[in-house]
Amino acid sequence: MLLLKRMRGTPSSICNNRIRLTGRAARGAVVALVVAATGALPAIAEKPQCALLQGVMKEVSAVRALTPKGEVPCAIASREEIGEFLRQSVSKKLPPKKLEMEQVVYRAVGIVPDEYDYVHGVIEFYLSQIGGYYDPDTKRFVMADWIPASIQESVARHELTHALQDQSYGLDRFLDPTGDNGDQLMALASLVEGDAAAVMNDIDRMQRGQPPLAKIKSIDTGEEDKVLALTTAALPTQTPQALEAMILFPYVHGIKFVHAILRSGGYAAVDAAFKEPPRSSHEILQPGDYLSRRFKAENPTAEGLASAAPGAAPLYSDVLGEFAVRAILEGAEISKTQASKASGGWKGDRAVLFVAPDGSRSVVWKSVWQSEVDAQEFASAYRAMIRSRYGVALGEQRTQISPSKAATLVAHGREVLAQFWIPRDPAA
Ligand SMILES: [Zn+2]
Fold first, then answer.
1. Domain boundary residue among 260, 292, 324?
2. Do the Cβ atoms of 258 and 290 come closer than 8 Å?
3. Structure confidence by residue, pLDDT tens digits, 150-163
4. Measured in angstroms, how far is the CA atom of residue 257 from the centroid of ligand 1?
5. Which element (helix H / strand E) includes 314?
6. Is the pTM of this model over 0.90?
7. Which side of the chain, N or C, has fewer Cβ within a 10 Å radius?
8. Are residues 126 and 210 in the same domain?
9. In angstroms, rounded to a whole number, what is the distance separating the alpha carbons of residues 424 and 276?
């Protein structure tokens, strides 16, 4: 929904920057706010840019083959107004403590470093980088008043595709941040964003006299970068690599996924995907598995993990998913290819934060793999990541791997169980 723009720098730097946008955690938060906001935006002055919207809606609905079912009011907002909108939405719509819990789990498993301030980082990111959004609550499109004229039309094409998606399929259910499966949320976001990127791309192709995406075999990187450049913003430089990859996922992989869907049957096939959406990042990475419906994730339940933390209560539960596993493994001394291979046998997972009556906390992360060999491959890649990051050998004996966490890793059959013991919640 959000269209973020790099705000520092000139318009030309926008195009040169690698593209980025809301991830899943991050996204869960911000999409929630954007989706949820109840029109609390302070007075927004209408500016001439909104005049271009009528023509854009015609273009978008023609390419997307969806009939608009209502007007989409347009507004132009200042940085301060959008910031206020985001802050209010976060506090109103995100489940309490969601970001804090996510931070605990992400630090434990290694998505962000132990000391990274995820909560602050995510909120500041959105506050500082947002460039425009479609708000399914008020059904209107809001463009940041600092968006350069040269890309306003592209922003509008992207966001009005979201308006059409919302009118036809109801975006609320694609953005619900209250569930316990972030992997599924990421897959839904990839469909929603990939579709908006594809429409934007197809309009551009049409105007250049090029064949539509449905008729070309592969999207070259230049084209993809161009799409991404129009739909994303630069993350603050201190954003950890794995988190950045997860934030980029719906854009980088969403367009590839939707391209595969388009190849299978044009925008009618994309409509079918909205009716029966992808359920995991695995299906986004392997569109063939989505189209054939042959992939069924085996995500453990939170109850199923309780025996690892006897007497403790589950406080928070999430599915990390194949792509998050890949992102965790990448970097250090593990190549992208190795990380992709070691995460490729993913069949399901769940990470649960448990709190014992005495306040001690642990994160239990069980993953299920397609075969015993896949489980072993992941376990050894994960150990290699821990070794390269912390200089410690991770095994079945509880070991202090960093000043703030101890861990174990046990591979058994098709399952790998990792457990992390972390300090008490200082606020509890
Ligand atoms: Zn979007």
1. 292
2. no
3. 778 888 898 899 99
4. 15
5. strand 313-318
6. no
7. C
8. yes
9. 42
